[in-house]
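Fold this: histidine kinase
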Amino acid sequence: MLNTLSGRFLILTTVFVMLAEVLIFVPSVARFREDYLLDRLERAQIASLALLADDMLEMELEAELLKNAEVYNVVLRRDEMRQLVLSSPIPKPISQTYDLRDPGALVLIRDAMLRLFRPGNDLIRVIGAPVRDAGLLIEVTMDSLPLRAAMVEYGLRVLLLSAVISAFTAVLLFLAVRLLLVRPIKGVVENMKRYAADPEDARAIIAPHASVRELREAEDALLSLQTDLTQALKQKERLAQLGGAVARVSHDLRNILTSAQLFTDRIEASEDPAVRRLAPKLVNSITRAVSLCESTLAFGRAEEPAPTLTMVRLRDVVQDVFDGEALTLEGAEVELVCGVPAGMMVRADPEQMFRVILNLVRNAHQAIAATKAGGTVVVEAREDDDAWRIHVCDSGPGLPAKARDHLFKPFQGGARKGGSGLGLAIAQELIRGHGGTLRLIETGESGTRFEITLPRGTAAA
């Protein structure tokens, strides 16, 4: 009970209402004390007026008047020259004097609290103004014990009433919290349990219906989370199926390409100059294809293989990419420009760096070719004390908004119709394996620029 939301609301409400009642209790007790003393002054004034009417009251009647007024003596000053006094023997000296003619609120509260927590019976003097302007001053002497007893009795009644009000308010709030908060929260929890049991079942996704704004916002956030997670799980399943298919295809393709490698030896022995010139490039292409198939098979079993870092002449890698892409550019007015310094060496895996630059260059020239207006693809590089920075730039139309929003996401970041978006995702993963970064610097109508950053420190190794 105490660990539940509604139970804690019940306890907190009771405590807070009691605190509020305490703030009411203190001034109310002070007011009760003031009324009690004023009542005694009024009774004393009535008794003194009886003596004023008849100067020769018997001692027994005078004592009875003082007893009814619950005082020991009365002083009524009607003018500066005359005083009317009712008196009886005083048992002990006066300990305190209270003036009620113009008291402040804080003074009344202070005196009331001091009297309430002082259990002894003191003799006190009370001074006040007579009712109906029947004089200048009235003064009485009385015991403090009856006053304190009346204050305690009144305080207990107030506390009892406060407890009843607190309990009633707490029960009402308890029921309200159960109805407005606890029940909707339990509904959200039950939905989360159902969804956790089968997250791929779209029927388990929550339907927001709460009337409380904060709960509705929580339900909307949960709806968005569940929707995205369900879609991600479905996509993951499709990717797993696609990965299995790719692995099988790569296995068979590797066998075919291995057989093709056997024929390249005879091609290299050809007397035709054109064949002899193209044969090494064909061998390199088949070798890379076999390596890619083997890497794909490894990827199907685990993550992308860790790069084998060596010092590579970057210009040679870029030139190999350009030579391979030149065969696919026939009929397209796309110019490939290598701006890499001839002697620049970078620490990288040559095969993986070839794949990264190939993906970026191929995306660039395909974007330019789609416009049928021609353009330029430039690969340039520079180095500083911290890193090698390789830029792949093009003068194409720029990336569309959808591609920018889902850049580097498989099957979502494709910039052209029919594209899978895998190229940039693979390139980023390969560069991350080098300890570097691949990021989009700019894109627009004037072209697109990607930057590859490879760290030079020992951390890169």
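The chain is about 55% helix and 15% strand. The chain has a mean pLDDT of 80.
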